[in-house]
């Protein structure tokens, strides 16, 4: 959410930021709307003051037996009482209109974000890990997985397209991945484990930027709640409408949850396999910081996600998203893309974003420094650590063997005691 005062103070900078997002200038229209609202507020306050003043004057006029003056004052008060509710309604309407306009505008990119139209303009920062070599033609996960318990047909039978049933060895591997991620983030990086609600209210979805613009990307229940598309929605809103002490920050939360996405607009994309599902598990990291901590926290969070991929022995690269490919609430995003030898290309497995104070304004989440009366908005950050399904895909493709088995990465063996590989039924 943007601050209209900041827009008034520097409209040119605001419009420049919008232009980098590929959007038309908005500052002048927003300022004009705000000026109309402020003019109504000024008239309303003047009317209220005059009503109070005139009401007192009526008594004084009656006391001095000036009936004409009293009647004139009473008529004036009566007219003001009729006018003021209309002004109050107009002020509310203009305020709501301004809030609606501001709520629909994405966060502005930070200065170091590369300009660009789409994913083709993203910038590769670094590549990590050696791509595996095979003495055979590597297969994609949807060819490897079925013999290991990845059941696409039953998933579709139970729930329709973009659902998968996992059973047996591959289900064990899937759950081990989630536990490895969450345990590592908690034990080694200080994230507090959280088991959050999977259903949230309108104001929670609004707080992180999913509403109102992206309602079609979510699933809604019959009683008006929303299934979370990411645990970011629940975790970030832990601090909504709160004033934290500066000494409490940073707060770091992590959760392993199912996520639900309608994949609106994804028709024809990744229709095979587990890359793009309506339901998937993901470990999410969220940090709540002061403004001066958020830069370092963004690097720290991204490094935590990178560390998981390194521990799993998966080759990956860090990519800085351009202005045209960033999410609605993000001011800067690093994507981590894992190498999939079956597909012969990198695919996104994590996004780590700093949202500056954009979400905090929507949530009214603030902090106060010791000894100060004034409050400031916190900064919020979020990142995948990691998407479990896509990590499973990466493990199957990078650790595949010619006989159809898949070697278990060393980092997962504590979570899969006694298991060195998973093999098709009947395999050894």
Could you outline the blueprint of secondary structure elements for this entry?
Elements: H1 4-9, H2 11-20, H3 27-63, H4 67-103, E1 123-128, H5 141-144, E2 150-151, H6 152-159, E3 165-166, H7 168-189, E4 192-193, E5 199-200, H8 202-207, E6 219-220, E7 226-227, H9 232-236, E8 243-245, E9 251-260, E10 279-289, H10 294-311, E11 316-320, E12 332-340, E13 345-354, H11 358-363, E14 366-368, E15 376-377, E16 379-387, H12 388-398, E17 406-407, E18 421-422
Parallel strand pairs: 4-9, 8-14
Antiparallel strand pairs: 1-11, 2-3, 5-7, 6-7, 9-10, 10-16, 11-12, 12-13, 13-16, 14-15, 17-18
Helix pairs in contact: 3-4, 7-12
Structural description of this entry:
With 428 residues, this protein is α+β, with helices and mostly antiparallel strands. The chain has two domains: 4-103, Helix Hairpins (Orthogonal Bundle), CATH 1.10.287; 119-422, 2-Layer Sandwich (BirA Bifunctional Protein, domain 2). Helices cover 40% and strands 20% of the residues. It is built from twelve helices and 18 strands. The strands form five sheets. An eight-stranded mixed sheet has the order 1-11-12-13-16-10-9-4.
